[in-house]
Amino acid sequence: MAAKSAPPLAIMRGLTPSEATAMIERTLFSADHEGFRDSFRRFMDKEIAPFHSEWEEQGYVDREVWRKAGANGFLCMTMPEAFGGSGADKLYSVVQMEELSRGGWSGIGFGLHSEIVAPYILHYGSEEQKRNYLPRLASGKMIGAIAMSEPAAGSDLQGVKSTAIRQSDSKGDAQGEHYLLNGSKTFITNGWHADLVIVVAKTDPAAGAKGTSLLLVERGMPGFETGKRLKKIGLKAQDTSELFFNDVRVPLQNLLGPENRGFVSLMEQLPWERMQIAIGAVAKSQAAIDWTIAYVKERKVFGQAVANYQNTRFKLAELQTEVQVAQVFVDKCLALLLENKLDTATASMAKYWVSDLENKVIDQCLQLFGGYGYMWEFPIARAFVDARVQRIYGGTNEIMKEVISRAMGLGGR
Q1: CA-to-CA distance for 108 and 162, rounded, in angstroms?
Q2: pLDDT surpasses 50 at 3
Q3: Cα torsion through 241, 185, 109, 322, rounded to 10
Q4: N or C: which end of the chain has fewer CB atoms below 10 A?
């Protein structure tokens, strides 16, 4: 298998819409959205593409890319202008998620920072919290994370063991009241870089889920330590870390939202969070098909292009049909989301079904690459290992099925 037989890697990175496989026209996006898509592509080509392989080797992206993204207005775009954002609609964030997925730039944690951490502060934060944190998040000077998962509590947020017990200082002075935070978190995206972490903890451990609260914890607070960067089979440039909290004194004003209402807040935000996984999954699935089409047209076996074999054509036709179905469903869910009509069960359907499909599509596309599909320098190989976690985080796909079945009135407690 001679190396010269492989098509240039450039063929398989971020194909433009005109080069990609023809599909049903999407009607969600305006000309302004597409203009933004072009602008963000140029940013990726300049500031991400040349460095991503290096970031995979070191296990994290350079902080400088966050500052550059902030300077270009690519962070926290949907936040109001008063808090450093652009007041943009969610579709601008969707465009950004799609383009990062199509390019295979899995180390970039902008989505969690801009569309999970910042919205929590916007929706549940005090005016002081919004003015203190949102402009810094939008500028890229502060990187955000959210700490839910624990060593013994992943998809089951009711099983969180971290505690934040309200206390006064030794003199009983009300001015010295604070939460004493103890516990550990794991699998935290942006965790190693994070300057601000939304921590899920029990403020009333005896009350179960009803005793859960959200706390804003800053880097540098005594007792807050960032653990090692976790070595994963994929997402190698993403700085996923452990976090440890040892008697961290968190001021009362750092409570995000009402005390003991954290679980409710988490549930309210789940549809959008799970949709983000589905958005990336369908975009990556389409990218995998487009990379594969480019490859099989160039690669020759027994004197003819791999694309000429019926098995290749039929397999890609099958995959393209399924991805088209997924794209239409995801776009419909997004339309509902923009109207505040998307329910948790439907978002769970999108998350589970499209992430399952993503793994299937990438696996079968990789097979058509043959030996080259197993080579790390090919985007399809990276996509293969990156895709596996999509069925796990955001709630495992088994949990998604539980949510859906309960919405159907089936079983469960």
Answers
A1: 28
A2: no
A3: 110
A4: C
How many angstroms separate the Cα of 405 from the Cα of each of 102, 325, 390, 397?
A: 32, 22, 20, 12
| % helix, strand, coil for the chain, step of 5 | 55, 15, 30
- Annotated catalytic residue within 81, 273, 377, 402: 273
**HSE value, Cβ hemisphere, 13 Å, CA-based, for 288:** 34
In degrees, rounded to 5, the angle at the alpha carbon of residue 404 between the alpha carbons of residues 399 and 405 is: 95
**Residue reference for tokens 């943009």:** 88
pLDDT the model gives residue 85: 96
6-50 per-position pLDDT tens digit: 443 444 444 444 445 557 899 999 999 999 999 999 999 999 999
Give residue 21's pLDDT: 58
Question: DSSP assignment of 15-47, as one string?
Answer: --TTTSPP-PPP-S--HHHHHHHHHHHHHHHHH
Pairwise CA distance, residues 98 & 40, whole Å = 11
Cβ atoms of 80 and 87 within 8 Å: the answer is: yes
What is the chain's mean pLDDT, rounded? 92
Query: 212 in helix, strand or coil?
Result: strand
Structure confidence by residue, pLDDT tens digits, 332-355: 999 999 999 999 999 999 999 999
Q: What angle do CA 255, 257, 263 make, to 5 degrees?
A: 100
Q: Mapped to the 3 state alphabet, what secondary structure does 359-374 carry?
A: HHHHHHHHHHHHHHHH
How much of the chain, in percent, has pLDDT values that exceed 90?
87
Q: Which residues on neighbouring strands pair with residue 218, listed in sequence order?
A: 196
- Is residue 273 annotated as part of the catalytic site, yes or no? yes
83-96 CB burial, b ≥16 within 10 A, e <16? bbbbebebbbbbbb
Q: Is the pTM of this model over 0.85?
A: yes
Tokens 């320098």: give the residue.
377
Q: In this structure, are residues 338 and 382 in contact, taking their beta carbons and an 8 Å threshold?
A: no
Per-residue pLDDT tens digits for 276-320? 999 999 999 999 999 999 999 999 999 999 999 999 999 999 999
End-to-end CA distance of the chain: 56
